[in-house]
Automatic annotation (TrEMBL):
It is a multi-pass membrane protein. It comes from Agrilus planipennis (Emerald ash borer). This is Transmembrane protein 256 homolog. Keywords: Membrane, Transmembrane, Transmembrane helix. It comes from the Eukaryota.
Length: 161
């Protein structure tokens, strides 16, 4: 909140600074900028290791999403329900894959463990309910899909705050 207040307080300066510059006739003095030269770079994988298990978890989840996607593409659905079950399976798999990719960004979050818990639990509930329904044709766990979807939404919002 303080940063927003500071930005708002500087708005008048942003508007009047160009007017002052052009009315002087001569440009303002050049101020030297102190820069730091990076001589040695760390490999990206070392940065990922320092940030916790999130990248590894994303890799495992992504691999599971690809395996389940391949299985769902070749699964023999019942002839009378193929138009109903296959789109449900594909939706669950898309959400699983997208949120596996989102796990890679967790080290950039302010509260990565909270966001990870929301994403993992939400993906498990939402995609798990979709997978189960598509595999078995039963509606036993369908009530968990909206809970999982809500957790995924809260997970995305937790990346903002």
């Amino acid at each position: 909140m303080q940063q927003i207040t500071n930005c708002i307080m500087k708005l008048p300066d942003l508007v009047t600074a160009p007017l002052k510059y052009f009315s002087k006739g001569s440009p303002s003095p050049v101020v030297p900028i102190k820069s730091t030269i990076i001589t040695e770079c760390s490999p990206l994988w070392k940065l990922a290791v320092k940030q916790g298990p999130f990248v590894r978890l994303a890799g495992l989840s992504g691999a599971a999403a690809v395996i389940l996607g391949a299985y769902g593409a070749h699964k023999a659905y019942p002839k009378d329900r193929v138009n109903e079950l296959k789109p449900i399976y594909e939706t669950g798999n898309k959400f699983h894959f997208y949120h596996s990719l989102a796990l890679v960004a967790l080290p950039l979050c302010r509260f990565p463990k909270v966001t990870a818990a929301l994403f993992i639990t939400g993906t498990f509930l939402f995609s798990g309910a979709c997978y189960y329904h598509a595999f078995t044709g039963e509606n036993k766990f369908n009530r968990f899909a909206p809970v999982g979807g809500t957790l995924l939404i809260i997970g995305w919002l937790s990346m903002v705050f």
